[in-house]
Amino acid sequence: MNRRQFIQSTLGTVGAMWVAGCGSEERVLTQPTLTLGQIDLSFHAAAAAVVARILTDHGHPVEFNTALHEEMFARMQRKEVDLLSSAWLPGSHGAYLAPFENEVEKLSVLYNPYAFWGVPDYVPEDAVSAVADLLKPDVTERMTKVIQGIGPGAGISRFSVEIMQAYGLGSAGYEFRNGTQQDCEDAFTRAVEEKRWVVVPLWHPQHLHHRYRIRELAEPKGLLRGKDEATLILRKEQLSKIEPEALRMLRRMHLGNVEVTYLDYLINVEKKSPAEAAARWFQENPEVVERWRNG
């Protein structure tokens, strides 16, 4: 599946170290090595791979530093990480960045993520259209009671705990569980295969939106915080180390949710490495790359 086919399908259904030669021509890396932080989820790796490609194209060897949410920000505060792709601001990661926000520069907004609770579209909308509907007796009889999430440091996980408490879902037999990204995806896909009613705490961008129709549930209390800005941040003392054209491109770059979903699809479904996915994206988007280069 190429990018055009993927985006048409998506729009129809949704509302280590990187060195020369990773998926492209050999490059001579003569600039300072930079450490690029990425949160340990596949879509963060997808966006980080595009950032890394820009840096290596301009002569910077890139060392990846991968960790879960809170630990990644702690590493950046300890100056173990030069750049981070990315900080979801202000809702999901703002509290993690706050203690050292004056030490970083916000280079660009890569995409605009948001969290939500959803159900497969075969669950009738007149039965379940909002989080509060999960408390209806006829819904509680059919809905899978385990709501499988990801790690506790993720925004969607913290928000889900608040939703559980605010709506009293525990008293109706529901249980929110933390786990890995794979745990969350597997719980959803198994339920869909069995045509069970299930709630998935998810986010955009995410590759499941390509494969499944997932209907978002209304949450009028505002506990999911709305849209964030997935921001590429750099420690200020590293500004002078980045090759000037690379820095200009990083300041101009914007991927958007659909493109990150596509990259995430390449990694999770087509089993490309992040470097291979980024190389394919660059091949398919020369006009976007040129716009980042020349404004």
TrEMBL record:
It holds the Pfam family OpuAC. Residues 33-283 form the ABC-type glycine betaine transport system substrate-binding domain. GO terms for cellular component: ATP-binding cassette (ABC) transporter complex. InterPro entries: ABC_Gly_betaine_transp_sub-bd. It comes from the Bacteria. GO terms for molecular function: transmembrane transporter activity. This is Substrate-binding transporter protein.
